[in-house]
Amino acid sequence: MALKKKPVTGMKDIMPKEMEIRDYLISLIKETYKSYGFISMETPCVEHIENLTSKQGGDNEKLIFKILKRGEKLKLDVAKEESDLVDGGLRYDLTLPLARYYANHMNELPSPFKATQIGSVWRADRPQKGRFRQFTQCDIDILGEGSILSEIELILATTTMLGKIGFSNFTVNINDRNILKAMAVYSGFKDEDFDDVCIILDKLDKIGEEKVAEELCDLGYSTKESDTYLSLFKEVTRDITGIRFLKTKLAGFLDEKTADNLEMIIDSVERAKEAEFSVAFDPTMVRGQSYYTGTIFEIAIEGFGGSVAGGGRYDKMIGKFTGQDTPACGFSIGFERIVMILLESGYEIPTKKEKVAYLLEKGLSDQEIITVLNRGKADREAGKQVLIVYMKKNKRFQKEQLAEEGYEKIIDCYKEN
Amino acid sequence: MALKKKPVTGMKDIMPKEMEIRDYLISLIKETYKSYGFISMETPCVEHIENLTSKQGGDNEKLIFKILKRGEKLKLDVAKEESDLVDGGLRYDLTLPLARYYANHMNELPSPFKATQIGSVWRADRPQKGRFRQFTQCDIDILGEGSILSEIELILATTTMLGKIGFSNFTVNINDRNILKAMAVYSGFKDEDFDDVCIILDKLDKIGEEKVAEELCDLGYSTKESDTYLSLFKEVTRDITGIRFLKTKLAGFLDEKTADNLEMIIDSVERAKEAEFSVAFDPTMVRGQSYYTGTIFEIAIEGFGGSVAGGGRYDKMIGKFTGQDTPACGFSIGFERIVMILLESGYEIPTKKEKVAYLLEKGLSDQEIITVLNRGKADREAGKQVLIVYMKKNKRFQKEQLAEEGYEKIIDCYKEN
């Protein structure tokens, strides 16, 4: 019986043209982050199922590819439920494995630990256009540093990288979960409803103010709370002035330090940035992950819906492994999104070498072949990329195809006699 | 409850020092193979369980990490055996997925298709020192080219890459399964015993001639066959002369073209090589994988047991997917072995940048911090790698550690007042 040709449902084979962009992007990312003092690291793709289902991953935990126990450990006859059958799963993000890694190797790592990770993650999402069940994530994190130096450096490194691939005029939006909280409490929402209030607020862009107000009332509040809440957002400008406004307005609800920190992050990023972009305060930004404890940030590019990067502070996750909280802050770029944007815009990688193709006539002597091999060697030494292939019957078509693949120099090699 | 800190059994966290070598090696490999006209490609880590258990992978098929069906497809209550529970598995090599990829995308790919793949593979082997259940493979393959141009280019590209990381005086050993077969048949072994004869011959290095002779007799042959067989190996020199000797000796058993091809491969590699190494004919080399159909080759380095690369021709695999045989030949380097050799020999990657660290005194003003950020920016623009961290109480120890991490310039930044 013939084997299956298609990749498994929801995952994709990566074609050479896309691969060239991915390879280039990865090398650029690694180089840029390294220049900011970030260190490369890697964890296995398989994680303990206990860690993956420990409620650090929110909804992603419903989407885990689970791995069957092996050998004697698999007791199919007595297994009652799924959890009896599995002992591992494919990681759904790089943050949880990073926390485990740090907990495991803390004493061998620099402090603070500035980490770069690029790797595949898996989520058994419903297949849909442009979203795949295996995709690459690309994170930088600073562990063990509680000050906003982390936020500043994460934003500078990420934006520098985006600048290097030609992105400009994008916006870094920044907020703090403590501001979100203070605004909610100031407006009369209870602490225990904070998560629900955030979920509703997060839909502001999509469903509009009226619907948000409705849903807030559905939580059991009067229009007073939702009115106060929503009018706050209207009063706040999306800049340092807005932060200062809230610092005064939310006095007693918001730690002044939170506002000062946000202001300093925006100011210093603006004044030390290496790419062209702006930084804005966005009091409506929520970000899904429940593990964030402080600042949160995203990058939006004009003309592309959604964000191309996102991150924030999560000071409570490492403590789940070590029993002791460790400050942590990370920024993750939407690798697959960026690849798609570059691919669709016809991006040409800037490091292309001259490409030379030698076409060998069938029946060349051994000596003639060796001569071509040595010409190829000389070309490579001169920095060129060399392809040596046999001439096809339809040589014209072959040359057209090679030209399409970027071979600008094509040399026919005929036999002498 | 605290989460698990250790990686899953048999898999490893990769530490920064090793990671630096891996990153460098991967970029060097990609660059070198690209200069030989190989194209980067990737398949998902998860494959159809049907493909993984189709007898293309030999013993590796016993070591598959299997993935549980999800949602409604998982019917635990009616599942009778393991295969009812799973629909995918983690790939155990890169060759089978490559064959699937080629079968799936043949019409969109150049012909011949010269592919580079670097990726993780998984085998649930018994954990042992230095061997892990997730490891990186790094393959080049040429699909759709039946001539020995494939073998020559695969060997040249691989050895060039090894030369670039400083390996020299290694040996490329080469053989052909058709020579193995002709020698066996010439000696009186039957066709149907060929695989068993090979398995025994493969142990020659380990168990010696006497034991091999014994085991051959155990197959039901007299000492005549084993004597003829083993004395053949003694007569053959490990060079082109040996190949010519066999061409005459095995006349009627061996296609002359096979001997001529081997001779041409050795000759042209010797005369077009870009690194320092030798090429030898090794008539005792078997290589495990049953899918090989012609030439087989390995690279051995003096002082390191086992091989650091291996490959060969497998003209029958793609036909399992397409119904039509396609010539194919590949060479895989032992990525993990090479990393270990480099790591243990204290290899220093040659592309290191100057590393500068700024130590910030606690309490620096916002303006002072921004000034340091801008000094870092200027350093990066000058090609340096910059770390900005807060000064610790034990500054001397901190500086020692930074020096160990390679920061040769460490700048104290004190507050002005």
From TrEMBL, chains A, B:
Chain segments annotated as transmembrane: none
Reaction(s) catalysed (UniProt annotation): tRNA(His) + L-histidine + ATP = L-histidyl-tRNA(His) + AMP + diphosphate + H(+)
InterPro entries: aa-tRNA-synth_II, aa-tRNA-synth_II/BPL/LPL, His-tRNA-ligase, HisRS-like_core, HisRS/HisZ
GO terms of molecular function: histidine-tRNA ligase activity
CDD domains named in the record: HisRS-like_core (cd00773)
Keywords in alphabetical order: ATP-binding, Ligase, Nucleotide-binding, Protein biosynthesis
Domain called Aminoacyl-transfer RNA synthetases class-II family profile: residue spans: 10-350
Pfam families xrefs: tRNA-synt_His
Principal EC category: ligase
EC number of this enzyme: 6.1.1.21
PROSITE patterns: AA_TRNA_LIGASE_II
Gene3D superfamilies on file: Bira Bifunctional Protein, Domain 2
Protein family membership: Belongs to the class-II aminoacyl-tRNA synthetase family.
NCBIfam families per record: hisS (TIGR00442)
Protein name: Histidine--tRNA ligase
Organism lineage: Bacteria, Bacillati, Bacillota, Clostridia, Lachnospirales
